[in-house]
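TICKET: design request
STATUS: open
ATTACHED STRUCTURE:
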């Protein structure tokens, strides 16, 4: 029987630096919409990605909405595992004619990296067109 092996006392703690790029069409080289933010836990980072993905898909007709298997099932579990182990994870999603990409990178809080400075940091460059930017208008 395997016994639980405790984490070393000096294991790093992390902040989770997240970036989302949204492209209006596959012909675009530069994102139309870009957001950066940090999350205090892997669970919060993945939850925000799930929320953003659902918002992007909500404006599509029901028949055109892809299944979010990566956000709901095994993909989510693997992403959480990677983040808890200090590894980067990413997701991509096609929605209508556009697509979005998310990257979450653990940053040790003692690294001096600006990403770890604030667990609630958010910076966006809204396009005013995608479902995430027009939400709340």
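STATUS: resolved
RESOLUTION: sequence designed for all positions
ATTACHED SEQUENCE:
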């Amino acid at each position: 029987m395997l016994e639980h092996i405790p984490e070393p006392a000096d294991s790093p703690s992390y902040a989770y630096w997240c970036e989302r790029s949204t492209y209006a069409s596959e012909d675009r080289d530069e994102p139309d919409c870009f957001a950066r933010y940090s999350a205090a836990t892997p669970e919060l980072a993945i939850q925000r990605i799930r929320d953003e993905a659902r918002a992007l898909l909500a404006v599509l007709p029901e028949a055109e909405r892809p299944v979010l298997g990566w956000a709901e099932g095994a993909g989510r579990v693997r992403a959480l595992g990677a983040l808890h182990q200090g590894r980067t994870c990413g997701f991509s999603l096609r929605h209508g004619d556009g697509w979005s990409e998310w990257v979450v990178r653990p940053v040790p809080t003692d690294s001096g990296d600006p990403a770890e400075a604030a667990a609630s940091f958010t910076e966006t460059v809204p396009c005013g067109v995608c479902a995430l930017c027009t939400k709340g208008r």
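CLOSING REMARK: The helical segments are 42-58, 69-72, 74-84, 131-134. The beta strands are 14-23, 33-39, 89-95, 98-108, 122-125.
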